[in-house]
Automatic annotation (TrEMBL):
This is Sulfite reductase [NADPH] subunit beta. The gene is MET5_2. It is an enzyme of class 1 (oxidoreductase). Its EC number is 1.8.1.2. Keywords: Oxidoreductase.
Length: 351
């Protein structure tokens, strides 16, 4: 499986463990002129923070040099220029948002970037940097709790990548390595305070954060259906229950999307909410793509807002921590809840 993923020019390096696991960026089709820039920043940060060890390739790929982003970055097996000998106290996650859309839920991450735009809303000037988010907690353990990220300040965009490194290094050096329940960056923030954190990061950066700049988020969901992005280009966001692209009984979604991919000349984007955007459809192709989507019932958005905003953990049989059938049961649960919310007049409320 791992070699198959690698042959498809994807990789799973740093997908788990006490490292920077993932960097996500807005997939928002309404700001298509800015989306490529934040996607590049996400890739640059991810590459910069990848573990340098060749162990991934020795274990999974028989130590072969490969294409894609999982190329070996160090000639030695166990040299980690950023992580050091023991990696991080816990996992570390990063998100980049473009106001007014918070489709990545930027305040739920260890490190978040909030794009600050010029007056014309055409160019990204820099980013407000937020740290210490995380929604996890352990049942019946009051020492664990969810926390929204707090703001360190603003940096110009040419300094965005180096900030990711220095924030991570403060957590590497000062995070709790004795209690894994207390080891996420959010607890390090609460233990030391934001003033201390700002001083630590600035000392490593060699420059100071500017005061945070104003911005406004107006929504955090996906925009379903057709939306215009830039002149001549359109995007269709479809609902994918739990983000599961598979051929299921009565719903051959994978086969249907393969047919769309053969005829679509633009690209596809995956959203942080688990849905899929058929992106960059030319004006003259909208009618034919609409017919194609309809022929596969991929244009069906006649769902309650509750279902459109629902999401479940994968759970059984995939996750070793699972105790329930979260993903496989969720559609049936929404069926039952829909009856109640229809009676209550709440069908259009994004609960």
């Amino acid at each position: 499986t791992m070699r198959g993923i690698n042959r498809a020019l994807m990789d799973t390096i740093a997908a788990c463990g006490d490292v920077n696991r993932n960097v996500v960026a807005s997939a928002n089709p309404l700001q298509a002129h800015l989306q490529p820039e934040v996607a590049r920043l996400a890739a640059d940060i991810s590459t910069h923070l990848l573990p340098a060890t060749s162990a991934y390739h020795e274990i999974w790929l028989a130590d072969e040099q490969v294409a894609g982003s999982a190329e070996q970055t160090s000639a030695t097996t166990d040299y980690e220029p950023l992580y050091g000998p023991a990696y991080l106290p816990r996992k570390y996650k990063i998100a980049i948002a473009i106001p007014p859309e918070n489709d990545v839920d930027v305040f739920a991450y260890d490190l978040g970037y909030i794009a600050i735009l010029d007056d014309a809303q055409e160019n990204i000037l820099g980013y407000n940097i937020v740290i210490g988010g995380g929604m996890g907690m352990t049942h019946n353990n009051k020492a664990t709790y969810p926390r929204l990220a707090s703001c360190l300040g603003y940096v110009p965009k040419d300094r965005a990548v180096i900030v990711s490194e220095k924030v991570m290094l403060v957590q590497r050096d000062h995070g709790d390595r004795t209690n894994r329940k207390h080891a996420r960056l959010k607890y390090t923030v609460d233990d030391h305070g934001m003033d201390w954190w700002r001083e630590q990061v600035e000392a490593r950066l060699g420059f100071s954060f500017e005061p945070a700049r104003p911005y406004a988020f107006t929504r955090n969901g996906d925009r379903y259906g057709w939306t215009k992005s830039t002149p001549g280009l359109n995007n269709f966001t479809m609902f994918v229950q739990n983000g599961r692209v598979a051929d299921l009984p009565g719903s051959p979604l994978k086969t249907a999307l393969a047919d769309v991919a053969r005829k679509h000349t633009g690209n596809f984007r995956l959203t942080c909410n688990g849905h899929l955007i058929v992106a960059d459809v030319k004006d003259e192709d909208v009618e034919s793509i609409t017919r194609l989507l309809a022929s596969h019932r991929l244009d069906n958005l006649d769902y309650s807002a509750l279902r459109l905003h629902s999401m479940a953990c994968v759970a059984l049989p995939t996750c070793a921590l699972a105790m329930a059938e979260s993903e496989r049961y969720l559609p049936r649960l929404i069926d039952l809840l829909d009856e109640v919310i229809d009676q209550a007049g709440l069908r259009s409320d994004a609960i």
